[in-house]
């Protein structure tokens, strides 16, 4: 790569600026150049490339930052798509400057690899001089390092924007960076980067405090459940354990340490139990409350902890506990991935209150399977599950398909008329797949049906009341469609009572479990083994077509396999060609989408007072099985089980009660 100034000319300028004889840089860059010369003794005439760690050392560092990577991956993919620049890369670096994860187009990644910009490379300021990632780590605030701002001339074709990511303790844990060839994008990318960092930080709070109640608030109700909301996590006893940036800002606390440990009623003029109760009564619409300090009014929603706190595999000290947990399964499909299970859990509660659920996910990621699982576990499970693919129907047919028509309503109509899909889904679930493809004119009609809960088939004046649960799905970016004016904003908000993102197969924690499960299904129940090299290949493949593609590959492989053993040569040649190649940084399939957080939740129907085990939905049944397994293993010692799950005894007792697990103890507390 060539620099814009001759390398020597650039080096000369660096010296001049640091010695106070040159100008044209920001204070941030001048200070960084001074550090490079005086503290790190770097010579701008002798450019250095970053050290690239060996695979094992990189894995070690990834393990250390596993939860940050977990929270960042999907957001990084979204950011990459929002930037829409194939000559850019989005990277996450740890506190030492090591690139842990990178999202880039393969061609750009290859080219960047030549200057040592690849996973495992260490971009600290002290080794490669001024650069977005390394300099951001030093100053701890957002930085933009334009082309000529780099210390070494070899990097002056690049522009970096970087922002720090802080954990719930306020410690800097990573830096998110966009590096691009374009000089123009930095302002734009800094804004998007800042938002992405905030999303990652919010996710980190959720992940680290899953056993606590999330409390969402804002002074304006429409901002609750958005990136601007304040978020607190509150333990059973009402004490605040963490707060996001917006919460600190809105409540006027300088840092998380200033608010941590305070009781929620020291902050708001109410208790946790009261907010929980009022939130449930309002179907999780924000309820007003006042701040104790300033008599400001806020709108608040509190939720019960979203999941049974199955600890993350990576969390230190919990590995054994996880390994010993019985596998968590959904009703008819493998949902061993902790995140999916948690989403299923939240979505089950939401759908039970007839709040629409919107699923995102790449093609073949299992959106319909997830929707069916939701239906099966819902109060309308005895009704029909009616799926409509809005993309596969011609525009002219969607209307009659959805709304139905009376006999003779139009030329070609069936003589008997037709009951539309919406009516078929009465007391059941309507699944609108590829909702982004619904024509604008029909969007208005659908919105009316959702608002009025009644329908008028084509060619009739009559209105028929209808009661159904709605799940919609799209692999397209609906907010973008809204921005482009092809999707109604009001419908988008109506559909997205809860947004759930299904991770692509390559990112699922239960990938191996799924692999064997699909194999067993395709082998019609016959037990099959997979040779280690074939398994390694299947596990490392990026699967752009997700579970559907995996199923097709295994379907053919099972036919080709000799007996009950699946060998490498049974796999398609295109897959085998990847072998021995070092894994590429992830190339983003064009249709991949951002995975927004689950944004609403409500109490499970289990608290309704119905004591029948049959009343448990499949998600609760899975939770129940996990708990029973763990209780058994810990010889029914409640303290040990609570400790193993990293939740309080009270929380555990409440869960046991809700999941109808009786204890012999007479002091079984009931909440
Ligand atoms: N959890 C799962 N366990 C086993 N198989 C699954 C699971 N999820 C999805 N599949 C399989 O993957 C395939 C695609 O699933 P599904 O139709 O639900 O994906 P989708 O995301 O709705 O796809 P599209 O975006 O194309 O509509 C199906 O063959 C399904 O059986």
UniProtKB/TrEMBL annotation:
Keyword Nucleotide-binding applies: yes
Alphabetical keyword list: ATP-binding, DNA-binding, Nucleotide-binding, Transcription, Transcription regulation
Alphabetized PANTHER family for the sequence: TRANSCRIPTIONAL REGULATORY PROTEIN
Sigma-54 factor interaction domain segment(s): 339-559
Organism: Aromatoleum toluvorans
Entries under SUPFAM superfamilies matching the protein: GAF domain-like, Homeodomain-like, P-loop containing nucleoside triphosphate hydrolases
Protein name: GAF domain-containing protein
InterPro entries: AAA+_ATPase, AAA_lid_NorR, GAF, GAF-like_dom_sf, Homeodomain-like_sf, HTH_Fis, P-loop_NTPase, Sigma_54_int
């Amino acid at each position: 790569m060539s620099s814009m100034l001759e390398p020597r000319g650039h080096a000369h300028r660096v010296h001049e600026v640091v010695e106070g004889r040159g100008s044209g840089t920001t204070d941030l860059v001048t200070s960084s150049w001074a550090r490079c010369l005086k503290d790190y003794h770097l010579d701008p005439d002798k450019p250095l490339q970053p050290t690239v760690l060996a695979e094992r050392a990189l894995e070690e560092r990834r393990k250390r930052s596993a939860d940050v990577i977990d929270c960042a991956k999907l957001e990084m993919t979204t950011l990459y798509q929002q930037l829409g620049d194939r000559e850019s890369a989005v990277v996450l670096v740890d506190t030492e400057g090591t690139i842990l994860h990178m999202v880039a187009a393969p061609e750009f990644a290859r080219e960047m690899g030549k200057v040592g910009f690849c996973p495992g490379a260490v971009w600290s300021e002290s080794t490669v001089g001024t650069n977005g990632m390394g300099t951001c780590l030093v100053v701890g605030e957002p930085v933009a390092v334009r082309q000529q701002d780099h210390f070494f001339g070899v990097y002056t074709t690049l522009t970096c924007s970087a922002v720090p990511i802080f954990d719930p303790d306020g410690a800097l844990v990573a830096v998110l960076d966009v590096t691009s060839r374009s000089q123009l994008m930095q302002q734009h990318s800094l804004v998007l980067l800042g938002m992405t960092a905030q999303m990652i930080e919010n996710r980190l709070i959720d992940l680290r405090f899953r056993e606590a109640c999330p409390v969402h608030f804002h002074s304006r109700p429409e901002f609750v459940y958005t990136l601007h909301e304040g978020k607190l996590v509150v333990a059973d006893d009402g004490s605040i354990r963490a707060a996001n940036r917006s919460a600190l800002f809105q409540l006027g606390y300088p840092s998380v340490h200033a608010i941590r440990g305070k009781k929620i009623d020291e902050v708001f003029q109410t208790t946790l139990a009261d907010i929980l109760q009022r939130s449930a009564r309002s179907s999780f619409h924000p309820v007003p409350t006042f701040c104790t300090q300033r008599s400001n009014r806020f709108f608040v929603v509190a939720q019960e902890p979203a999941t049974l706190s199955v600890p993350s595999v990576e969390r230190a000290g919990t590995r054994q506990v996880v390994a010993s947990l019985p596998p968590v399964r959904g009703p008819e499909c493998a949902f061993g991935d902790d995140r999916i299970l948690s989403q299923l859990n939240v979505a089950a509660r939401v759908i039970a209150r007839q709040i629409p659920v919107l699923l995102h996910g790449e093609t073949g990621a299992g959106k319909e399977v997830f929707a069916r699982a939701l239906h099966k576990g819902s109060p309308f499970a005895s009704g029909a599950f009616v799926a409509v693919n809005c993309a596969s129907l011609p525009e002219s047919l969607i209307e009659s398909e959805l709304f139905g028509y009376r006999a003779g309503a139009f030329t070609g109509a069936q003589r008997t008329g037709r009951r539309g899909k919406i009516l078929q889904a009465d007391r059941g679930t309507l699944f609108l797949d590829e909702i982004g493809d619904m024509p604008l004119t029909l969007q208005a009609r659908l919105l009316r049906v959702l608002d009025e809960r009644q329908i008028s088939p084509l060619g009739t004046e009559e209105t028929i009341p209808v009661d159904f649960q709605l799940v919609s799905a799209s692999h397209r970016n609906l907010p973008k469609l809204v921005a482009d004016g092809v999707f109604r904003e009001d419908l988008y908000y109506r559909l997205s009572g809860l947004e759930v993102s299904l991770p692509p197969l390559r990112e699922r924690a239960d990938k191996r479990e799924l692999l064997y499960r699909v194999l067993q299904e395709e082998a019609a129940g016959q037990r099959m083994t997979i040779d280690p090299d074939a398994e390694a290949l299947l596990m490392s493949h990026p699967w752009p077509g997700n579970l559907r593609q995996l199923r097709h590959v295994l379907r053919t492989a099972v036919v080709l396999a000799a007996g009950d053993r699946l060998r490498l040569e049974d796999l398609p040649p295109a897959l085998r060609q990847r072998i021995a190649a070092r894994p590429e940084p992830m190339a983003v399939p064009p249709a991949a989408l951002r995975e927004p957080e689950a944004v609403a939740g409500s109490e499970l129907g289990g608290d309704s007072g119905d004591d029948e085990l049959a009343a448990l939905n499949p998600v609760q049944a899975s939770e129940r099985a996990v708990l029973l397994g763990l209780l058994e293993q810990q010889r029914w010692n409640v303290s040990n089980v609570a400790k193993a799950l990293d939740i309080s005894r009270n929380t555990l007792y409440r869960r046991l009660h809700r999941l109808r697990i009786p204890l012999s103890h007479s002091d079984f507390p009931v909440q």
